[in-house]
């Protein structure tokens, strides 16, 4: 970004590394300086929680609100029924209305922790695009909206082009997604005065379509801003850990496991992640990120505490840090470790340790558990586990048993009281 912004929002977004591209930096900056700007990001309800890969854009909405503007979180109650084909290798499984509604309820819990929803000028709005998409009349939509889209141009967008170049099928249902998202932006402008759509850089084509449609139909100038697609310094996609997705909903991932994900950040990513995922001053983020040796571990604890406090509260962050200290420094089991509770009936005459590793979430498959054991990466109550055929009975599980996969991932197994 070469433009030097005047608005607080663009200044913060640039300093903290949120900006990949913008359709009109100067025009957006002038709008931000002139008054409250309503801006939205859309989220399809494909799961009951967001994961860490989404968190960058939620933080961008948080900064938008903190700098005096109005965030809109748009739930894709309508578009989830179609599925976004952007940079996907295959069509997404379709969900029914009940599953979509249940997922939206879970997403609302996450947003409420990071944004303030109220009736003030900068109070966040939670909307659902099913409000205007569910009742569309197909022929009228084709005539009034479809005529503004060039198929040639739609085929040129990288999100579609990459799919076709790999000779992978793109259904007509998916092809409609970008038209529906463009229509969302226009409707949000018409109904709520929304003038900015934000999203990951993979959404650039969809955003530009919405701007073009709104200009053609409403004769209104609106803006788009994208964030970088976030990956770790070693090339891994954000949002995934060794044991699966890093969910933001505490019903799907415990605050301890969330804290531990951030504590395990690669050294090279600490400064960058502090800027994006915390509200610490930029200078302090740079200072902490430049630390070396054992000092960088202290910076990782600061990162984990700051991010966990934002999402789950200061008490959860403090408890997670205390549990981590007990587990790693004192060799204890830690009361806050992820726990697998089994009934006596489930244990029966005995249950294999391989099955326990899978059911506790430390590995995904029995094959992976056996490989971990063979590679000397598994421990039970801090002792090396070398026998993949070990079976634990009810007596052995009468008190919690600690399982470890490597040095950083642990779980407890016990019989439910």
UniProtKB/TrEMBL annotation:
Motif ('HIGH' region): 45-54
One GO CC term on file: cytosol
Placement of sequence motif 'KMSKS' region: 237-241
SUPFAM superfamilies documented for this protein: Alpha-L RNA-binding motif (SSF55174), Nucleotidylyl transferase (SSF52374)
Positions bound to ATP: 240
Gene3D superfamilies associated with the record: HUPs, RNA-binding S4 domain, Tyrosyl-Transfer RNA Synthetase
GO biological process: tyrosyl-tRNA aminoacylation
CDD domains named among the record's database cross-references: TyrRS_core
EC assignment: 6.1.1.1
Family: Belongs to the class-I aminoacyl-tRNA synthetase family. TyrS type 1 subfamily.
Complexes and interactors: Homodimer.
Identification of the protein by name: Tyrosine--tRNA ligase
Native species: Pseudooceanicola pacificus
């Amino acid at each position: 970004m070469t433009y030097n912004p005047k608005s607080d929002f663009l200044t913060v977004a640039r300093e903290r590394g949120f900006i990949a591209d913008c359709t009109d930096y100067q025009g957006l900056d002038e709008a931000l300086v002139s008054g409250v700007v309503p801006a939205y990001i859309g989220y399809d309800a494909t799961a009951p929680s967001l994961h860490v890969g989404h968190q960058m854009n939620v933080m961008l909405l948080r900064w938008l609100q903190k700098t005096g503007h109005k965030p809109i979180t748009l739930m894709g109650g309508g578009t989830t029924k179609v599925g976004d084909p952007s940079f996907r290798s295959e069509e997404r499984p379709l969900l029914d209305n009940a599953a979509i509604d249940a997922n939206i309820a879970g997403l609302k819990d996450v947003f409420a922790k990071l944004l303030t929803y109220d009736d003030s000028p900068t109070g966040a709005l939670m909307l659902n695009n099913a409000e205007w998409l569910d009742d569309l009349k197909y022929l009228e939509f084709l005539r009034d909206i479809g005529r503004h889209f060039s198929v040639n141009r739609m085929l040129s967008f990288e999100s579609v082009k990459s799919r076709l170049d790999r000779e992978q099928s793109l259904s007509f249902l998916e092809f409609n997604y970008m038209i529906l998202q463009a229509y969302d932006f226009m409707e949000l402008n018409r109904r709520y005065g929304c003038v900015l759509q934000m999203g990951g850089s993979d959404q650039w084509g969809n955003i530009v379509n919405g701007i073009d449609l709104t200009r053609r139909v409403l004769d209104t100038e609106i803006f788009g801003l994208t964030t970088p697609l976030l990956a770790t310094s070693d090339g891994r996609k954000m949002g995934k850990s060794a044991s699966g997705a890093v969910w933001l909903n505490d019903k799907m991932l415990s605050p301890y496991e969330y804290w531990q994900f951030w504590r395990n950040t690669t050294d090279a990513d600490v400064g960058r992640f502090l800027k994006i995922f915390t509200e610490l001053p930029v200078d302090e983020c740079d200072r902490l990120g430049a630390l070396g040796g054992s000092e960088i571990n202290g910076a990782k604890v600061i990162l984990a505490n700051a991010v966990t406090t934002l999402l789950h509260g200061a008490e959860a962050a403090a408890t997670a840090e205390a549990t981590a200290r007990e587990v790693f420094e004192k060799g204890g089991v830690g009361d806050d470790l992820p726990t697998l509770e089994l009934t006596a009936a489930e244990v029966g005459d005995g249950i294999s340790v391989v099955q326990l590793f899978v059911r506790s979430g430390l590995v995904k498959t029995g094959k992976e558990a056996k490989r971990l054991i063979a590679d000397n990466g598994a421990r039970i109550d801090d002792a090396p586990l070398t026998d993949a055929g070990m079976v634990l009975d009810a007596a052995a599980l009468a008190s919690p048993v600690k399982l470890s996969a490597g040095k950083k991932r642990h779980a407890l197994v016990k019989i439910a009281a």
